[in-house]
Amino acid sequence: MNPLKILLVAAMVVFITACSNDENSEEIIVVDDGAYIGTLVVDQNNGTSYTQENVSVVVSVDTDHAEVHMMQVSFAERMSLKLDMTIPNVPVAVISGGLSLSGNNIIPWAMGGNYSQYTITNLTGKVTAQSISFTMMCGEFPLRFSGVK
């Protein structure tokens, strides 16, 4: 057997042994790239809020960061168009039952470019295999989303 194959087999055995260790009995939750459907609420900073139902949010996770894709959203009653907005490079951490989201000073993407006037701050949230919820400041506007698969 070739030395490279031996090394590969040995590495696989170590990995499998580590994964089957009884100390690693905490349930691992897989958050796949499916859409969560829910409610978006934006505080208008004038004593009113704007609510959009049936908003689709897709979370794509890559190791320790995620992209949050908000599909066809509007943020105010007077906003005539709906747009897709992506929040890139959101730090994630594994927590019991899913992932936590957190982030500050993240420039979202919309309409083909940076949307810096609506920089994301104070982002906190949780994603599980069945649900998502998060709050954040989108520019000067407080925003919250809660959805399920």
Automatic annotation (TrEMBL):
Family matches, as Gene3D superfamilies: 2.40.128.350
Name listed for the protein in its UniProt record: Lipocalin-like domain-containing protein
The organism of origin for this protein: termite gut metagenome
Lineage, highest ranks first: unclassified sequences, metagenomes, organismal metagenomes
